[in-house]
Amino acid sequence: MSLFPKAGGLRRTIRDTIRVFNRNKTSWAGLVLLLFMVSLAVLAPWISPYDPIDQNILERLSPASAEHLLGTDHFGRDILSRILWGARISLSVGTISVLMGMAVGTVLGILAGYKGKYWDYMIMGVMDVFMAIPTLLMGLMVVAVLGPNLVNLTIAIALTVAPRFARIARAPTISIKNRDFVEAGRAMGFSDLRIMAGHIFPNILGELIVMGSLWIATAVRIEASLSFIGLGVKPPTPTWGGMIREGFQNILSDPWISIYPGIFILITVLAFNMLGDGLRDAIDPKLRNS
Amino acid sequence: MLKYVLKRLAMAIPILIAVLTLVFVIIRIVPGDPAMVVLGDQASAEALAALRTKMGLDVPLIQQYFTFLFGAFRGDLGASLLSGRPVLSEVMTVLPYTIDLTIAGVVIGIVFGVPLGVLTAVYRNSVTDYIIRVFSLFGLSFPAFYSAILLILIFSIQFNLFPVISDPDLSNYGERMNHLVLPAVNLGLIMVAYITRSTRSSMLEVLREDYVRTAKAKGVPRFVVITRHALKNALIPIVTVIGLYLGVLIGNSVLTEIVFNRPGLGKLILDALSERDYTLLQGVMVIYAFIIVIVNLITDLTYGFVDPRVKHQ
Asked: Would you say B254 and B307 are in contact if contact means Cβ atoms under 8 Å apart?
């Protein structure tokens, strides 16, 4: 079943989307959590009590207080402000890398499924090889050789995500390409590009959105893991994984420096997982009937 | 069966070559001169030339590729730039520790994940189901390094039950196990989440089958229907769980080893990264590529063995 209707205007699209959400309350919970995290990231410049890279050695390693709600780190930087600014990096790397991977993967997957034969063998062969290497190791290798920065981190994660979307897009394309409406399009002389973009793509969009949400969860986790290893955005730019890495040195005496950013990673990943999981259950008839 | 095994083996070799090629290509996309990346831009021309020769960078790329590929199949992964020791012996020294940890994690995952998955499927849409599902969603969402830190804080620092640093090299068996508990639990808890979900969906499908309904109608006790009729068949797809989540398992074992400062492939990667030892990094990736292809091969063969239908597809 498609998540979005093929026709009927914006109002119907919104109504249908709400109906899909209502079928599974988990997706609502995920959406609310996610909106909360996104608003924290967007509003960071206005709601952060301090500059996230401002050091105050006199106040280093102070626990939670009225001045510093979540305490300060070993440079005396306000942890809450760093978490709020760090949300921007985590959410943008997670979302942009998955959107990039989704775009490339979907185009390749539709192409492989629609064209078939050697196109299919070539594209999916390469994708399978990429998928054989675990996501974290792939990201680690690419960032290690290209150098740790925001762009390389995003490219590395996109590279690991793209093959997954190629596989997701290919299967439904194969089943849709022989359906009557595609045949009709072909008979009317539509180009392959028009059929793929205008007829096949809208039919697999729902599934792509669901998988996109689940993969953003993974991407946020990978970004945090790479930052924790030391392959993330360079300090002093605040990232959640990087904050945990820095706090880990004082884990015995001042554990909160690592604990608080971790809670935010957990909530963000959980929100995307809940959203994706709920939507998948809602649009998968097999699961719904059970 | 022999034909099936040979067919799978024949398919594994090109995949292995392709994965090794990908590792070679990625390691070679270092911007600029890899020797300069290692030694820094202040290094003398002689030192750079010597390192280039040592790294095998002074020969044409295609020759480097075939040297690398044949070397990988012969077990020659070059020498570590840092220690000068063969990469293979560096890897072999720590590989058993990673294998111990991974197996312990998978065992924990199966021992707790399968029963929990059955429970959620049998009591579908009940409070038990919701609670376990929420917990498994949490398990999926935990970055492995963060759960490891929390385990250390609670069980090592707060309750002083286990050591903060995991040393797998102790001669006393009991102590060695004591050092393995927390890292294994960390890896295991995340596996529990994945296996619970796989078991649940697999059980839900089997519980709807006609033969289960027939068994119930014949008056077979509920416990027997669930364990003998349903679970036995539901377990078939669960066999592939290890192959399916191998990537997750490897990624998490790397992070777990780093946090617990436990020797293993993960720690070796970290050392390679901090010392810019590209030969070592490439070597560890080659070993991972071998592990992945072999485990997937074993999973496929096991699947074909437990479910004869697969062989004929």
From this structure: no
Residues of A in contact with B251 (CB under 8 A): 134-137, 225
Question: What gap in Å lies between CA A148 and CA A225, rounded to an integer?
Answer: 13
ipTM computed for the complex: 0.87
Q: Which of B 1-30 lie inside 8 A of A, CB atoms?
A: 15, 18-19, 21-23, 26-27, 29-30
Domain boundaries, chain B: 32-76, 91-306
Domain B91-306, classified CATH 1.20.1600.10, yes or no: no
| Domain edges within chain A | 16-54+69-288
Enter the pTM of the model. Answer: 0.88
pLDDT digits (tens, 9 = 90+) for A162-179: 999 998 888 888 888 878
DSSP H stretches of helix in chain B = 2-28, 34-39, 45-55, 61-74, 87-122, 127-141, 144-151, 173-207, 210-217, 222-224, 232-239, 241-244, 246-259, 265-274, 278-306, 308-311
pLDDT tens digits, residue range B114-158? 899 989 988 888 899 889 988 999 999 999 999 999 999 999 999
Instruction: Determine contact, residues B97/B262, Cβ cutoff 8 Å.
Output: yes
| Residues 152 through 181 of chain B touching chain A, CB cutoff 8 Å | 152-153, 157, 164
What are the structure tokens assigned to B280, written together?
Answer: 């070592």
Q: What tokens were used for A170?
A: 């290919």
Largest CA distance in chain B: 84
| Coil/strand/helix, residue A108 | helix
A16-54+69-288 has CATH 3.30.70.100 classification: no
The amino acid at residue A118 is Y
Cα angle B121, B122, B123; round to 5? 95
